[in-house]
Amino acid sequence: MPPRSYPTARQKRLGAELRKLRERAGMSGTEAAAFLGGERAQISHIESARYGVSAERVRRLAAHYSATNKHLVSALAVMAEERTKGWWEDYRGILSPGFLDVAELEHHAKRIKAIQMLHLPGVFQTEGYARELIRSGVTELPATELNARVEHRMRRREIFDRPAPTPFEAFIHEAALRMRYCAVDTMTEQLEFLTEVSHWPSVTIRVIPFDAQVTGSVHSMMYACATIPALDTVQIDSAFDSGFLDAEAQLSRYRELLDSVESISLSAEESRKSIHRIAQEM
Going by C-beta distance under 8 Å and a sequence separation of 6 or more, which residues neighbour residue 180? Predict the structure, then answer.
């Protein structure tokens, strides 16, 4: 099997976790490769996600590394078993890998929490709002890429169409509800849709009001919960790129950040009324 040209963020995470297990065991790549009957490059390729790895091999390596966290090993084995390509793969070569990685992260998350300070969460954006938001970027996009980005963003809502929709809690600053990225009618339509979304069984919308005192460290982010906390991921968004954080110290800080934002946000019912009121004021 040829090496992967573009490993996904999830595949890279699997490789990185296997590297952590090896390093905790104090074992070199050469020693681990010898156990598998191969050369040092084999382990290097597995840990960099250039080569896939079977669930059986994950368990063998974990046992060889004397890994004692059976829940982590089982979760990694499940990740290794994944072979089906998701709908986002339709956009490979059309959109940058970061867009695909976000959709993949949302697809596999068991629960999602997000903070948005200046615009609405992508997964809840209407087509009109998303188009104007993307179009207003610094770089002018060709029509084909603009259309692909909008279409991709709309398809991310598939996580709510499954028999067991993904629980999603969004903390949205009032500034994001009032920022004008588009015409008034488009913004009104967006806020009305957000009100509808707030009634979805798996969705909770919490508004951070202007008069709430926020810390200087609050910024937009998405926290994706995995089957076990050790495999949680934080996605940091920016106007130009997307980054992923997964070190335990980082995850701990972002859990604290979410707790602090939750403490100053309106209740779900109060938030719904606030969104409706702002829509009426447009």
Answer: 187
Question: Which contacts (CB < 8 Å, 24+ apart) does range 220-223 have?
Answer: 220/114, 220/115, 220/116, 220/117, 220/118, 221/114, 221/115, 221/254, 221/257, 222/102, 222/105, 222/106, 222/112, 222/113, 222/114, 222/115, 222/121, 223/112, 223/113, 223/114, 223/254, 223/255, 223/258
How far apart are alpha carbons 133 and 129 in whole angstroms?
Answer: 6
Q: 114: which strand partners?
A: 170, 222
The angle at the Cα of 140, spanning 136 to 144, to the nearest 5 degrees, equals 105
**Tokens describing residue 122:** 């992508």
193: which residues sit within 8 A by CB, 6+ positions away? 124, 126
CA–CA dist 240, 161 (Å, integer): 29
pLDDT recorded at residue 241: 60
Q: Rg of the chain over CA atoms, in angstroms?
A: 21
- Please tell me the predicted confidence (pLDDT) of residue 240: 59
Residue in 121, 130, 133 with CA at minimum distance from that of residue 152: 130
Q: Report the distance separating Cα 124 and Cα 6, nearest Å.
A: 28
Residue with tokens 């709908």: 87
Whether the model pTM is above 0.85:
yes
Distance linking the first and last C-alpha atoms of the chain: 57
Closest CA to 203 of 161, 156, 166, 168: 168
